[in-house]
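Case study.
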Amino acid sequence: MMRLGALIVACAAALGAQGLSWERILHSDDEPGNWLSYSGNLLGHRYSKLALIHKGNVARLQPAWIYQIGGAQKFETSPIVVDGTMYISEPPNMVLAMDTKTGRSLWTFTHPLPGDLRVCCGQVNRGVAVLGERVYFGTLDARLIALDSKTGRKVWEAVLADYRKGFSVTSAPLIVKDKVITGMAGGEYGVRGFIDAYDAATGKLAWRFYTVPGTGEPGVETWGGDSWKRGGGTTWVTGVYDAEQNLIIWGTGNPGPDWNGDVRPGDNLYTDAAVAVDADTGKLKWHFQFTPHDVHDWDAVQVPVLAEGVVRGEKRKLLLWANRNAFYYVIDRTTGKFLHARPYVKQTWATGLDDDGRPIRMPGTEPSVEGVRVYPDVGGGTNWWSSSYSPQTGLFYMAAREGGATYFKGGAEFREGELYFGGGSRQIPRDERYGAIRALEATTGRLVWEFKLARTPGGGVLTTAGGLAFAGTSEGDFLALDAATGKNLWRFRTGAAVNSNPVTYISGGKQQVAVASGKALFVFEVNE
Amino acid sequence: MRMTAVIVMLAAPAFAEELGKASSDEISKGKRLFDGLCAGCHGTEGAGGGVGPPLARPKLARARDDEALMQVIRRGIPGSDMPMARQWDPGEVFQIAAYVKKLGSIPEEKLLGSAAAGRDVYFGKGGCKACHTIQGVGGRLGPELGSIGAQRSASHMRRSIVEPEAEFADRFLWVRLEAGGRTYEGVRLNDDTFSIQIMDAGERIHSFWKRELTAVTEMKSKSPMPSYKGALSAGELEDLVAFLASMRGEP
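After joint prediction, the assembly is written out as follows.
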């Protein structure tokens, strides 16, 4: 039996160990055995330097373990893995720590939810963030909660906004230095979007950046009357961090109401945009709006991808973005200046983009009472799931959706806490709808290869130094493709749609690949 | 509980029975509410928007009757994406429900023929039984017709009998596949990126990996059903339509 003195010493030693440091998160590319942030690194790459699983042995990939969830909601989590422990969220608002070797949970935390949530599109959660000995996650009733990483016990809880007014959180937080950055959802409820930064130790709000400017702020003139108050511009997918510029770069959602723009004349800044804010103050440094005055619900809520490359004869720091509006963008991320774009799926709404990247709308493509047929559909060329950038191949990988919709304009009567669509859309009967995993040349958006799918996909892409691209289908398959050619090297029938982003890491000396599909988390490794 | 309260509770469902009697003003108010609130997921006119199911159907899986329909609108469907309508008063819920009900309703049409005579055409001269099932009896290749009268108008059915390729049932697709030097034709049961399953005209089920196939032809405007134009007299056609219109999914 341990003597009391020795016990005290042991406890003190444990307190001295501070868990996952910011330095480790910042330099996550140096420890590919872990998956330390939502996108694997802070640049949004969802790429791993691991090559233990490679083209030569991927055919022998098998399930190591499977974790099954309860409930009826979509399972969208992207795991975090720190030194053999995996942290996941389970819908609606549970958090679990799992042992990656055995698939057994170490602890479970359940956040009790009220019965009158306002969530447009499922009681989902896309994952957690870890810093020090804390696990952070957002809730459907618009809270940010800090848990102890070893016990799952609650440390603090901050309320972002009143969920009864339509606010919620579905995205994983982003750690930047000593702050927890979180986006929010509710763009179909006439909310006003923001990005929040909380002190990681105390849960005190450090800054808030409103994605829709208010009275007296520049940009408010892009909203008719007081429509900015219900302007949307939500931030429901995790952004990225550019350490060299100390900038947080984040995508913003659709203006509200979605399909009836009459009540909000103007460009509606900063909806459907990339915004770059100072990580310490939350002050806007630059913005780039992909779809001014959007009337098709084309949220720019994708994970920004930061890379470097030669464009127009000059080596530049780039922001790469396959947008829901069907165009692939290359942007200078020091200024937010547009460099280049091209469509990556069929689109019929813009004749092109001008020199500043502003779309030139085709006349007659706005939703109408009679209905207007436009490509892409409301789900867009892609949606919230992650793209991947491989420094090894220089390619940008994404899950693409092909298909159109007939868009209708409806009434736009606002009631606080209720859905605020202002119209709707319909699929086109017997439309050529399909999906594809596509690899684009990162600096141009030129298609290098595609792997066609019978249905439009709903999950993201992971690439690895093993020369592989992993992706899920909505038909219930998880695939490994040759990252250079798109050839299908391995697949596993999970039996239900993949609505999540895969991750990879090391457990017990073996590389594992994890992906949520249907109502289960599948973890694969190569059976020697 | 006092007697009057009991009476009020018993009386409440009676109000719900009146959905079909909503005024055109109530229905148009319902449409306005629906377009702003519901069409985002269910599509305008309930045609299906890709998120929520289509509602322009005479039978809704979650709402067997008028009261159930209003319940779904009021309370949402727990565990699904369907939210509850918190700030809509009972009158507005009634208006939305009345509009939704109208979306799926089939226009009343005067039937010219005799259902009893149509039954003979169906099972006799028409040979419909070879490919269609009614109440568990018949072939498997074509759509089930046991509740077709609740799903399609008389004029729609009349047209489909004469012109089978004018419009197709949901998801119906006739395909031709080539594998191992043989050709297979049939109705698609399922397919995905890697495989396809069909039923051929002999009701045999075939499943293929797509990599085994040398050709796949999706015959989007092809129906295996013959046209009955000229094959049935005008009277026989009307009798057959009357018989099908009587098929409402009830024993």
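Observations recorded in class. DSSP finds two helices and 38 strands in chain A. The first strand of chain A starts at residue 47 and ends at 48. We will return to this complex in the next lecture.
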